[in-house]
């Protein structure tokens, strides 16, 4: 898959022209963007390491896609909502999800907001208006359309930003979500980090469309195709789409063309189905390195600052892991909370029965053999 | 005979049938070059080509809908749903279309399709990689529902399912995918659908189970002072009622074990049948050991899943019931 002429790019041009940053960004913001992408990258590296060490059961990296997540989320307003997929940790960080809370979720410990119920990276951050994440593909797309419809119903000037991958564009929820939002002119921005792989399924086996963005035409909404490894291009396109939505002009589909440099997850071995040269060619378009080049050329970044940032972020992650590992798992009774608003009698009976059994025979033993398989 | 895992047995079954019948086609997500995320379809794309084993776009309703189309046209598709937790977008096609095709067309159109899908927990998969949704399909007339618990059974039952003229949902308990190796006969062979397996004979209590609960029940029977007879259902629909009822007539006590959540699970059906047809033999109520009526938790998975001690507690309760 090659970059086409219609792909919107900003960074390379700016390096040439020495023009100002896109609207809405100043130097401080640019550094924030950089630091967020770096945090995303370092967090992913640590998550994968922890999984390989058997300290967490699963991890799902977004390596190579940091610009897609961070650049876009940065364009959201303070009261806007986000309906992510499971590969948007950069967006979550940008929207203020606390690092400690994210690491707690990897461990499913008592401090985890989702109470140890879901696999790692399936976060939920109500305070930051980030919807609880599920594994099934695309479910958030029609839900995002609905939340945007709710904003309309209430007469609010807010926007929903939802993320999904190229694989998700084959799902029924993609069709329903875009169709509903377009018909209702709902304030929803549909952002597809097209990383060109759905586990082992490459883009050309996923769709015969010439792009993801072109699908927007079918739904009667604008489609924009940007260089997903260009954080400024992603930011700019999202900002424009968010403004459109907020002004009542309806939804937009943004395709951010990128590449899934890493595996689908810690359970995937992409060397089985992808040639190294292809992956390497995309490593050379690293979004963090590209943006760093611009910042250095503008005198905003140098080796010392980079090292300082990396060190600080690294320490933060290490501390978060340490704290998470020292926090125990939730107790058995917690399994029965939150099934319903109120615990019905049949669940109360089941809860009592298992607690009574634990009194008698001790707690169930964790299965050391259990592992999310490769 | 060599000892192989359930995954290898599934792979062998698919190879046998693809060799025998050119109409057998495998489709699903990542089943081609990747050989499936569990490697169940490893080597098939290479051996039989892209027309007979291929990757589909990411759409469960598309996978099953198109498989139904192939089946009514005359092929014998074996679609894979990567995790049974993802089967729900295909629910309409399975329940409204595949299950009713023969009936609604007065027998003109049939759907000889076998849906293969890994189910169950015990592999740290949380809400969406651990579900046991078999009850939804047991509740749908027109479908057959199969769940093996051993490599040898998996091979014979899968071949039988593929050859069956009706749509079959073939659940593969992923916790057992690699955990046991068993000697499995080479070549194609069938195990009839609708036939349970006597795992272990006993005289005082009948323990009915299926899937990943079978090894748990075997261990419980081993550990118990009660003489426990263990029956592996293997096929849920159509159920081998005689196997269960004959056993209960002999033992007088029955415990049914399922990993799935309790309410309206398949164990309820077994319990109802036993109570209806063998009440005069029962010395104790029919008990069920099941998952809780909650979504499947990640960190506390080991607490959720029925284990040997919970089965033993039920055995004791039934055995000492006055």
What does this structure look like?
Chain A is of the alpha/beta class and 374 residues long. Chain A has helices at 11-17, 27-52, 66-73, 89-94, 99-107, 139-153, 172-184, 203-206, 215-219, 231-246, 276-283, 287-297, 303-325, 345-361; strands at residues 81-83, 160-163, 188-194, 197-198, 201-202, 223-227, 252-257. In chain A, the strands form two sheets. In chain A, strands 1-2-3-7-6 form a five-stranded parallel sheet. Chain A has a two-stranded antiparallel ribbon with strand order 4-5. The model of chain A has no long low-confidence stretch (mean pLDDT 96). With 322 residues, chain B is an alpha/beta fold. Chain B has a five-stranded mixed sheet, sandwiched between helices. Chain B has a four-stranded mixed sheet with strand order 5-7-6-12. In chain B, strand 10 (205-209), helix 8 (213-223) and strand 11 (228-232) form a beta-alpha-beta unit. In chain B, helix 8 (213-223) packs across helix 12 (308-319). Chain B is globular, with a radius of gyration of 19 Å. The mean pLDDT of chain B is 98. The chains are: A alpha/beta (374), B alpha/beta (322). Chains A and B meet through helix 14 of A and helix 11 and helix 12 of B.
Percent range for β-strand residues of chain B: 15-25%
Summed over residues and divided by their number, the pLDDT of chain B gives a mean of 98
Coarse shape of chain A: globular
Q: Poorly predicted ranges of chain B (pLDDT <50, ≥5 residues)?
A: none
The total count of strands of chain B amounts to: 14
SSE order of chain A, one letter for each helix or strand: HHHEHHHEHEEEHHEHEHHHH
List the helices and strands and how they pair.
The complex is a heterodimer of chains A (374) and B (322).
Chain A: H1 11-17, H2 27-52, H3 66-73, E1 81-83, H4 89-94, H5 99-107, H6 139-153, E2 160-163, H7 172-184, E3 188-194, E4 197-198, E5 201-202, H8 203-206, H9 215-219, E6 223-227, H10 231-246, E7 252-257, H11 276-283, H12 287-297, H13 303-325, H14 345-361
Helix pairs in contact in A: 1-12, 2-3, 2-12, 2-13, 3-10, 5-13, 6-7
Chain B: E1 2-4, H1 6-20, E2 24-28, H2 44-48, E3 53-55, H3 60-73, E4 76-79, H4 91-98, H5 101-104, E5 114-119, H6 134-138, E6 144-146, H7 151-163, E7 168-173, E8 182-184, E9 197-200, E10 205-209, H8 213-223, E11 228-232, E12 235-237, H9 241-251, E13 254-261, H10 266-277, E14 287-291, H11 301-304, H12 308-319
Parallel strand pairs in B: 2-3, 2-4, 5-7, 6-7, 10-11, 10-13, 13-14
Antiparallel strand pairs in B: 1-8, 6-12, 9-11
Helix pairs in contact in B: 1-7, 3-4, 8-12, 9-10
